[in-house]
Amino acid sequence: MVNIVLPVDFGDKTEQLVEGAVKFAKQVNGRIFLIHVTPSDIGFAIGDMGFQYFPEVEENEIREELVQLNKIQQRILAHDVECEHLLKQGIAKDIILEHAQDKKADFIVMGSHGRSGIYDVFVGSLTKGITKDSKIPVLVLPIHE
Question: What SS3 string covers 53-95?
């Protein structure tokens, strides 16, 4: 069986990415390891008193993200594709690459919005970073408008 790591960010193109990954998994007899990485600092805010940590904000955000991951997993399973999921906090690129190694992934499936140039300078591109540093083949699916 082919192991596929599928990072998701719950953006507006996540559904297209999942559909493409499911199609690919069916073609190669694959199973999907769904992963979402949330920042380590989601419970922190800065205000008049400096940095403050609000654990309830972090807990609520993680709970909502787990609900979204579960829904995506159920959609994948409904297509008769094996799927498990993981939510971790930290630096997305590092965690995704580590997860791919842990799962002995044959592929990492990422999406590309088709942006380039100045967007990458200011925002960066997770897909670009993964393809640059991965020792595992990366399948980049176009998910344009």
Answer: ECHHHHHHHHHHHHHHHHHHHHHHHCCCCCEEEEEEECCHHHH
pLDDT digits (tens, 9 = 90+) for 38-96: 987 776 667 666 767 667 777 888 899 999 999 999 999 999 999 999 999 999 999 99
- What pTM value is reported for the model? 0.86
d(CA 25, CA 12) in angstroms, rounded, equals 22
| Residue 111 near residue 13 (C-beta atoms within 8 A) | yes
Structure token pair of residue 59: 């807990």
- For the chain, which residues make up each domain, given as ranges? 2-142
Count the neighbouring beta carbons within 10 Å of the beta carbon of residue 36.
23
Each residue's pLDDT tens digit, 1-17: 999 999 999 988 899 99
Domain covering 2-142 in this structure, CATH number: 3.40.50.620
